[in-house]
Specification:
Bound molecules: flavin mononucleotide
CATH topology: TIM Barrel
Number of domains: 1
Shape: globular
Structural class: alpha/beta
Distance between the termini: 33 Å
Helix content: 40-55%
């Protein structure tokens, strides 16, 4: 797999920074407010040390896990991301294709630039769908029907954007609503002719899942749609319970940080949670997901599958998450930066390969042959390290 001499997600992000117009890079990388939550996400991961364990036969070690009745090649997947085709037309499709080929899940966003019907035959049964319930129940029901018809069995319902975030980078660049690109933004786009050329050749990125009869909503119309429909402060547990009743397969609530919310999700019959602060893009003062994860695991025991996202960047982070109580993780930004850094043809497969290899390397250092063996024994400091006397595995 050609990696273009980039060997980790940090190097991919650095290359993406050069290749993308500043406003697009900022839209992806940026967070809410002063971006304290973004920094905290990384800092809290880096504080967790993993205790290696030597001389345990790991010659048959593998990275496979089972979640929601399906075996995947590794315990990570692609998080839902709206407007991904801003990186390059075809980004959603390339990510879905690579996820299918590598056998990891790809989550299509409600706000994706490619429709459910286009992505379904590409991702096949590696497709998960993310729903913003929004203010309009009929729109949500229609999206769920389409996801079902496309063969989706895992639905992620995002509940952590009751109001739109204040993202200072987007405001500064004029990428907020109403759309008023600053002069600096316009000049900077002109300095990225390769990006401009690719963008000009493709369709204008719009919210392809919302077709109004005249084609998908585009430009300002969909930006306004996002702010009106997707961030809905009136949402409550009754709506989520109704969605639970209507969705016949695996239902996952995305954007949980509070253990009390985790207990509520369990009560209404959710199958899993995404413990997430939306990558630091919503509440800047929020805790990081990795620091609240143990409390959430304690609150809901083994009854719910816990998926973690926000700040996962390495195989070590995947192992840190599983050792802290997660069953699975999602990554967002690194996948978009991989496309920007290495292109549609190589970027998505290269990052999946790289993360899987990193994770397997970590797993073996920890003396585990199976991701299911990861647990609090591997955290240092934190919980005690049991000696597992007399046990060879
Ligand atoms: C550009 C971008 C768009 C996103 N769009 C959505 C979305 O449409 N729906 C959603 O639930 N989360 C969305 N997210 C959040 C991601 O699903 C995920 O929670 C977050 O990116 C994880 O953090 P990470 O980027 O640090 O890995 C988006 C994130 C980014 C970076």
């Amino acid at each position: 797999m050609p990696t273009g001499r980039v060997f980790n997600t940090a190097q991919m992000a650095a290359r993406a920074r050069k290749r993308l117009p500043r406003a697009i890079f900022d839209f992806i990388e940026g967070g809410a407010g002063s971006e304290i939550a973004v920094a905290r996400n990384r800092a809290r991961f880096e504080q967790i040390a993993l205790m290696p364990q030597a001389l345990r036969d790991c010659s048959a070690a593998h990275s496979e896990v089972t979640i929601f009745g399906r075996r995947y090649a590794a315990p990570f997947g692609i998080a839902p991301m709206g407007f991904a085709d801003l990186v390059c037309p075809g980004t959603d499709r390339a990510l879905a294709q690579a996820a299918r080929a590598a056998n990891v899940p790809y989550t299509l966003s409600t706000a994706a630039t490619t429709s459910i019907e286009t992505i379904a035959p590409i991702a096949q049964d590696n497709l998960w769908f993310q729903l913003y319930p929004g203010s309009d129940e009929a729109i949500a029901a229609g999206l769920m029907q389409r996801a079902l018809a496309a063969g989706v069995t895992t639905l992620l319902v995002t509940i952590d954007i009751p109001v739109p975030a204040r993202r200072v980078r987007d405001l500064t660049n004029g990428l907020a609503i109403p759309l008023r690109p600053s002069l600096r933004t316009v000049l900077d786009v002109a300095r990225h002719p390769a990006w401009l050329l690719r963008a000009a050749r493709g369709d204008r990125p719009g919210m392809a899942n919302f077709v109004d009869g005249k084609g998908s909503l585009s430009g300002l119309a969909h930006a306004e749609f996002v702010s009106r429909q997707l961030s809905f402060p009136g949402l409550d547990w009754r709506r989520i319970e109704a969605i639970r009743k209507a969705w016949p397969y695996h239902l996952v609530i995305k954007g949980i940080l509070n253990p009390q919310d985790a207990v509520m999700a369990e009560r209404i019959g959710a199958d899993g949670l995404v413990v997430s602060n939306h990558g630091g893009r919503q509440l800047d003062a929020a805790p990081s997901s990795i620091e609240v994860l143990p409390a959430i695991r304690e609150a809901c025991g083994d009854r719910l599958k816990l998926i973690l996202d926000s700040g996962v960047r390495t195989g070590d982070d995947i192992a840190r998450s599983l050792a802290s109580g997660a069953d699975f993780v999602l990554l967002g930004r690194p996948f978009l930066f991989a496309v920007a850094a290495l292109g549609l043809a190589h970027g998505p497969a290269a990052i999946i390969d790289m993360l899987r290899a990193e994770f397997l390397n970590t797993l073996i250092h920890l003396g585990c042959a199976d991701p299911a063996e990861l647990g609090s024994d591997h955290l240092w400091p934190g919980r005690h390290l049991s000696l597992r006397q007399g046990s060879n595995r």
